[in-house]
């Protein structure tokens, strides 16, 4: 799939802010599932095994996605007897962006899923450090 196909998919109803967030912050489809789970249960902290069980992932896949999301300013991490993660975007802009993604997932799930799959099949993931991109809008 190429840029024109991704452009066409975006024209099918996903807001540009949603596609921009997905392109910049989600490395794998499983990461979207993990992010949305923690967003939905923002009052709770999770370890990798709990996320794995909730989403039917392997513990290592869950841990990989949790670490990715944490490194990309979307989760808080607490160290103790075990590593625990909680939804905690670093900025209000990121929190609002996740809210828009969650809304798109509820209302335009098939388009969002197709966009994420196509984006990664095309190698379009392009995370850039916050300092070089000026934040998510």
Q: Helices and strands in order, then pairings?
A:
Blueprint: H1 3-10, H2 16-25, H3 29-40, H4 48-55, H5 59-71, E1 75-79, E2 83-87, H6 92-107, H7 109-121, H8 130-133
Antiparallel strand pairs: 1-2
Helix pairs in contact: 1-7, 2-6, 3-5, 4-5, 6-7
What's a concise summary of this model?
It contains 8 helices and 2 strands.
H/E order of the elements? HHHHHEEHHH
As a percent range, the share of strand residues is: 5-15%
Overall 3D geometry? globular
* Class of secondary structure makeup: mainly alpha
Tell me the number of strands.
2
Helix content: 55-70%
Distance between the termini: 26 Å
Roughly how many Å is the radius of gyration? 15 Å
**Mean pLDDT rating:** 84
Describe this structure in words.
The protein is mostly helical. The protein has a single domain (3-125), classed as Winged helix-like DNA-binding domain superfamily/Winged helix DNA-binding domain (Arc Repressor Mutant, subunit A), CATH 1.10.10. The protein has helices spanning 3-10, 16-25, 29-40, 48-55, 59-71, 92-107, 109-121, 130-133; strands at residues 75-79, 83-87. The chain has a two-stranded antiparallel sheet. β1 (75-79) and β2 form a beta hairpin. α6 (92-107) packs across α7. The protein starts with a helix and ends with a helix.
Provide the descriptors you would attach to this structure in a database record.
137 residues, Arc Repressor Mutant, subunit A, globular
